[in-house]
Amino acid sequence: MAISLQKGQRVSLDKVAPGLNAAFIGLGWDVNTTDTGVDFDLDASVFLLNSNEKLISDQHFIFYNNLTSPDPEKSIKHMGDNLTGEGDGDDEVIIVDLRKVPTDVNRIVVTVTIYDADKRKQNFGQVRNAFVRLVNVETKEEVLRYDLEEDFSTETALIMAEIYRKDGEWRMNAVGAGYQGGLQALLNRYQ
């Protein structure tokens, strides 16, 4: 049975999923029926941060044009861009092998942005049922889930969750923070 997280809640992965080696991070959403004249294209991205909470390098920004982390083990993999978000379940997926994440990666920030949001006059207020979930790759068991409940009517970028190291163990934080300015606002924050 998965643990349902509330905004701001932090949990130890060692405690809720002892022996977790690799995580499947699924992100999903539905779009409200609105006529903006253009399809919605939401994109999941991952920022790999150092202990100063800054992007280690441009290659440590994982998204649809850079699908794998730069370490030799390719410990973090984005499984590709979903251009429509149609259908149930996970719309975009990131795989994280926690055993192989290099020690200089202190924080893995999972985000979602709306592609060309300003031009298309779109925002997260037009999106519903957004969630992030963490699944044990080996057992296929959903461990944690965070369902976004706020109405982000002006925001075009969201930080959904963070997986971070503390006291030698991996933890997860349900963030749920919205930003205006799309992907660029997040890049500005972490560079």
Automatic annotation (TrEMBL):
Pfam families tied to this protein: TerD (PF02342)
Sequence ranges assigned to domain TerD in this UniProt record: 1-190
CDD domains: TerD_like
InterPro entries: Stress/Tellurium_Resist, TerD
Gene3D superfamilies referenced in this protein's UniProt entry, alphabetically: sav2460 like domains
Family listed: Belongs to the CAPAB/TerDEXZ family.
Protein name in UniProt: Stress protein
Native source organism of the sequence: Cyanobacterium aponinum (strain PCC 10605)
